[in-house]
Amino acid sequence: MKETKNISRSRAQESSAAIEKMYITMRHLFNRGFYKPMGVSGDTLREALLALRPEIYGNIGEEKVELNGLLYVIERLPVGIEECRFINLTSEEGYSKSHFQAIVPPKRRRNCYRIDEEQMNVEITRGRSDIYDILTHLTFIFIESHKIRNRVLLDDAGEVSRDWFKLEQAVSQKKKLTLVEKEKAISHAANILGRTFEEVLDIYDAFGSVAAPDRFLHVIYWLGKLAIEEIVDDNKRTITFSPILRERLGHHIHGEIWATNIKKVLEENQLLDRPIHVISANMHSVMNSIFATEVLKTKFKDKSDFFIYEELSRSGADEVRNQVSVVALKCGMFSLPDASGTNIDVQIFDTAKINWSKTSFPTANSTDKKPVLIVMDYAFGEQAYETIDELLKPYKKDILLNVESVSIMGKAGILEGGKGDIMIPNAHINEGTADNYYFENELTAEMFEGNDIAVFAGPMVTVLGTSLQNRDLLKFFHESTWGIIGLEMEGSYYQKAIQSASKIRKSVPHDIKVRYAYYASDNPLETGSTLASGGLGTSGVKPTYLITIKILEQIFGIK
Length: 559
Hints:
The chain has helices at 11-32, 43-52, 67-74, 128-152, 162-172, 179-193, 197-207, 215-232, 243-248, 253-268, 285-295, 305-313, 318-330, 383-391, 471-479, 491-504, 541-555; strands spanning 34-35, 86-90, 102-103, 112-114, 119-123, 238-241, 276-280, 333-336, 346-350, 372-376, 403-414, 422-430, 436-438, 455-462, 486-488, 513-522.
């Protein structure tokens, strides 16, 4: 009789299973309509996140509170959410017309509304990826809040430690703390968090703002306070999904409005019959690449183009940015700030109105039919499918768009290399499914060589959320025959929409060209190089503009 082998799973397999479990659980909870994150209904989500132990959340599995992960999450959630027992995820339901002031998180474009002391409403207009993003972040901070509770609650009757009592005194002060008061409070907070005084001091100011310099203490206090009340008073925090959100999600409502607005502007300016090139990028690199050097040549005499782009990217450079914008608006650029709820602004460039001799592309191929550029801001996860799918559909059911190319520039995590390096994919693998999208990329790694930037080519993985990745799973993707070079959130959704529109629905040309290029925002396989370690700063400027220029050179036929 053959002996049965003891089959054990690798950490990569466990991580993959945990991501799949989170994905299914979040969809189930959404369909249910509500759940209590620290109650029985939230068990599966918490267990899966703890099994996964994503790099972005650092020491989530340990007793001490994770500070860098907490900062990363707090920057992506609305100010005051830590004080709210009830978090309501809604569609765009008219709160912008009320007296409620929109609260926009510093690092995520979403409108949130504080309804009262206990309730925060968060508008979901960017699809399911937005929900996954919020729910994983909330699960993380609730897990951390119970770590705080475990360290300060002495018994079930509600008696708390001296450190907690002192922290409460510091938080109750309405004025800014003096240096002595602040350092005393940090000492007590460090004991509560299981961290050193120095660790807390180093991250303290990153949580603060001019209006609330001591916000770090408030966040820790309110997270702990609500966790204590969950145990002592059985007063559980609750997340609900509004009936309107559950009814609308997945129906492309915001994407359809967004795309129709663009097509109306094209129609009003007689641009519908012209060759169209769609570029997903930011709202400055295309405009600056075309106009900035010429507009600012006297201000930055004898300076390189990339020096000018760096100056334009600095905070406080509004004056020079406006100079470029004014010229662009006079030379065929239309600005379409978002009014659909997608949070995706758009610029349209009518190249017939551009005098190429006064731009950075004096040899641009001037054909009879001048191309039109549609530059859209970054989509978020699954929203990429919704927006491109709607944009490539016929206008008024029978007017086909002559979209000659779709170019995607984005930020991504890199698995070999570092921040600021460039990735050129030839396929997108959709994590957690068997979906994979191979394509002929018009951009090649060779085009970017000789610019003192490392370039990597190969498949990339489209992930459920950048905050859900862990080292074991990424190492498997990178070192196995998949040969993954990086991870991002939108690629496969863009390609799915482009393929269906060009190959099946025939609403755009069958031979539509695609271009994908990403610059690295982080390396999640390197300690200290994850997204939680901070932004790119100006190191992202050169790859951003290098990619933009290569895209424009191809569109304009510049060899």
